[in-house]
Amino acid sequence: MNRSHTGTGSLLVRVLVFPGVRPLDVSGPVEVFMSANDFGGRYRLSMVSVGGDGVTTSAGTRLHVDGAAEDARETSDVLLIPGGPGWKQMLKDDTLLEVVRGLDAKSRCTVSVCTGAFLLAAAGLLDGRRAATHWRHTRELAMRYPAVRVEPDAIFVKDGRMMTSAGVSAGIDLSLALVEEQSGADVAREVARDLVVFMQRPGGQSQFSVRARAPHIRQEMLRRVLDAVAADPGADHTLAAMARRAGVSSRHMTRMFGEEVGMTPARYVEQVRLEAARAMLESGDDPMSVVARRSGFGSPESLRRAFVRNLHVTPGAFRARFHTTGVTGNDGVVVPAAPARRGAGPARAVRRAGAAAPTGGTGT
């Protein structure tokens, strides 16, 4: 079924695709905009490429396009620049960068997903602006393009008419924010419920699996300690207990954490416990006392302090889900979620629909 709106007053979403583009960078945002049409949105889609030929994605699938990017004349309301695993090669493609500049000049709002931010930066479109990209690449974006102010933990960033998002599925978050801004919060909430996603997900990119983010650990004894913490966050993981398990002194354990993990033992344990608590709050209705005990924080007050200190939101507000995408009408950096207003019915509706935050390391 063609869900693209064709009537007057529609909003044009133009997507630039290229060989090796990541499919979800394209399909996630497109699904948000097209789903919005089922709930009162007025979006139409145009997919273009350099030269007008179809492209093969990084997954090997084929994308057909509506025409050549060079022939685009109509001003778009949204220009979407996705990313792909071969982004470093794309930066050497002067023709592609020139096309990006040309399409941006004919767009009211230009957005990127994941490593698409590198294309915008290479085209000079992010100079002096804040930006986000996949957490694996934030440092490189900042080093390659010092005129860009990189927000390393942001899910997405809005700076004027430019928006950039973190990795892969974060393009869905960004697109929901645009739908809210252009078509209203009610439409955006219905899309979020339909797709079973958050209106505004909790935390920033730092939420993605603490154990998975740890670098390769050379010491087998330390790997066992890290795995034990991840397997049972509620167990006794004091420095002394971890040192005993590894058969080393507390001082040596602290030194190993600093050298191989890049943080203190206490900080690592807290991050794992936060991750466990988030999962419990997202998927169940256990009392805070139970969540605090099972995740290893012990008491609801300790749990609350850890959430406020790290995520800038209380556990109760985290559980309540989120009332909006957080940026309507404002330039902003979306990192932690804004607490839902008391009694916010639509936020509860999202939770009843079974929405769950992605927890993989792809930068959703």
TrEMBL record:
Record-linked InterPro entries: Class_I_gatase-like, DJ-1/PfpI, Homeodomain-like_sf, HTH_AraC, INH-QAR
Disordered, as annotated region: 344-364
Keywords: Transcription, Transcription regulation
CDD domains in the record: GATase1_AraC_1 (cd03137)
Sequence ranges assigned to domain HTH araC/xylS-type in this UniProt record: 223-321
Gene Ontology molecular function: DNA-binding transcription factor activity; sequence-specific DNA binding
Domain of life: Bacteria
Record's protein name: Transcriptional regulator, AraC family with amidase-like domain
Source species of the chain: Actinacidiphila rubida
